[in-house]
Design goal:
This protein is α/β, with parallel strands linked by helices. It folds into three domains: 12-81 and 190-246, Elongation Factor Tu (Ef-tu), domain 3 (Beta Barrel), CATH 2.40.30; 85-185, NADPH-cytochrome p450 Reductase, Chain A, domain 3; 261-404, 3-Layer(aba) Sandwich (Rossmann fold). Helix content is 34%, strand content 20%. The strands form four sheets. A six-stranded antiparallel β-sheet has the order 6-3-10-1-2-7, covered by helices on one side. A five-stranded parallel β-sheet has the order 13-12-11-14-15, with helices on both faces. The structure holds flavin-adenine dinucleotide. The site of flavin-adenine dinucleotide has 28 residues, from strand 6, strand 7, strand 8 and helix 9. Residues 3-5, 8, 76, 81, 124-125, 162, 192-195, 209-212, 214, 216, 218, 225-229, 268, 271, 405 line the site of flavin-adenine dinucleotide.
């Protein structure tokens, strides 16, 4: 997955107080909560969406909101995770520290080293910068020296892949002499963004998300994503979770409520479209809705199946197309379904449909764009060049919006 999403051209590191502090949601309300001043929300629901036997672990998580906190479909919620206690303990052991040592955090507030490793520092996914910083403390160590500088970038990246800080500390013991040095070696633990999967017109007091829990094994250790692991393992109902809402004005339902919308949302890319559909349903918007959803297997990976089938039955979802890649010998993806429905898809575009894509940036979003260009070229009996112009016009009219990560 790539970061940042192109619809939200910011990095969390760059996000300033004012950007989130006074970012109004489309409904015009400002929120006082930011990454630096998060709202301590209560987890009110946290259940698996994927069924037994699935290769994915995707959860539906609901978080309470305070009165006055508002969001609009298309927005995201930022979650400030904590590193898991086992990872903190392993890191302390590798470093030879106890955890009760005192350090100053990024705001010069004195805290224990244990708290710093749990809540302030990125001890997950190893960054090349950490290797470089550690090497500065031990210039004599050949093993570190060979990973420093632009000429050794590839070697350092290969080392970092699939490793965390605990691996570095284990491979090069005794280099960190003072706990405070860790603030130079490790970057700050940043919030993770999750597309909002609910409409406040339907759920006034909470915000809902669709979270794929990242778990993998590498270099002999079981690993997990910091935030998704936190939500997956340590966020039962009743647990407090620091959050903030983030407006995303580049991913919005059409102002014209009668305009048709086409939504391509495989995997967790479904989240904002559940929000769009709930919004259109709750506010009685008359526009047609067409959803393309894709995952591995229908039996265990059809996220929100009952709700979407219900919406289809009730006519909220005018069309629902699914692509389950592993249910047959030849893999079928959402872009293949688009190709199969090319004539009708082009007809919707000609009717002024808005086209949305959410989810994986590395492959899916590119494949969907190629399929879309093909659909346009076929539908208009034109060349791919003409299709590219058609798409450029759609972009100008804000009728082609992507939220990919
Ligand atoms: C605007 C936006 C919206 C988003 N919406 C959603 C959403 O709705 N749902 C959702 O689930 N996510 C969403 N994401 C992604 C989410 O923010 C997190 O990036 C994701 O949950 C992983 O974060 P983490 O803290 O769990 O993992 P991290 O601790 O950040 O670790 C993830 C990293 O682990 C490494 N890794 C993962 N697997 C392997 C492996 N097999 N081998 C080696 N290394 C590996 C990779 O380097 C990967 O980048 C969104 C992102 C953005 C920017």
């Amino acid at each position: 997955m790539e970061w940042p999403t192109e619809a939200m051209r910011f990095t969390i590191e760059d996000m300033t107080e004012t950007e989130t502090l006074d970012t109004p949601s489309a409904s015009g309300h400002a929120t006082k909560y930011t990454r630096n001043n998060p709202y301590f929300s209560t987890v009110t629901y946290n259940e698996l969406l994927t069924g037994e036997g699935s290769e994915k672990e995707t959860r539906h998580v609901e978080l309470s909101l305070e009165e006055g906190m508002t969001y609009t479909p298309g927005d995201a919620v930022g979650i400030l995770p904590e590193n898991r206690p086992e990872a903190v303990a392993e890191t302390l052991t590798a470093l030879g520290f106890k955890g009760d040592e005192r350090v100053l955090d990024h705001y010069k507030v004195e805290i224990s080293l244990e708290e710093a490793l749990r809540t302030r520092l990125q001890i997950g996914k190893l960054a090349r910068g950490s290797v470089t910083q550690l090497a500065k403390l031990a210039p004599e160590l050949e093993g570190l020296k060979v990973m420093v500088g632009p000429e050794n970038k590839a070697r350092a990246e290969e080392y970092c892949w699939g490793r965390e800080f605990v691996d570095l500390a284990t491979d090069f013991p005794g280099v960190v002499k003072e706990p405070q040095q860790l603030f130079n070696i490790l970057s700050r633990l940043t919030p993770r963004m999750y597309s909002i999967a609910s409409s406040q017109a339907m759920h006034k007091d909470n915000v809902q998300t669709t979270v794929r829990v990242v778990r993998y094994e590498s270099h002999g250790r079981d690993r997990q994503g910091v935030a998704s692991g936190h939500l997956g393992d340590r966020a039962n109902t009743g647990v407090l979770m620091p959050i903030f809402l983030h407006a995303n004005n580049n991913f919005r339902l059409p102002e014209d409520t009668s305009a048709p919308v086409i939504m391509i949302g495989p995997g967790t890319g479904i989240a904002p479209f559940r929000a769009f559909l709930e919004e259109r349903q709750a506010t009685g918007q008359p526009g047609d809705n067409w959803l393309f959803f894709g995952e591995q297997r229908e039996k265990m990976d059809f996220l929100y199946r009952e709700q979407f089938l219900g919406m289809h039955k009730d006519g909220v979802l005018t069309r629902l197309d699914t692509a389950f890649s592993r249910d047959q010998h030849a893999k079928i993806y959402v872009q293949d379904r688009m190709q199969e429905r090319a004539a009708e898809l082009f007809e919707w575009l000609e009717r002024g449909a808005y086209f949305y894509v959410c989810g994986d940036a590395t492959r899916m979003a590119k494949d969907v764009e190629l399929a879309l260009l093909d659909v346009i070229a076929k539908g208009s009996n034109g060349t791919l060049e003409h299709a590219a112009e058609y798409l450029a016009t759609m972009k100008k009219q804000k009728r082609y919006q992507r939220d990919v990560y």
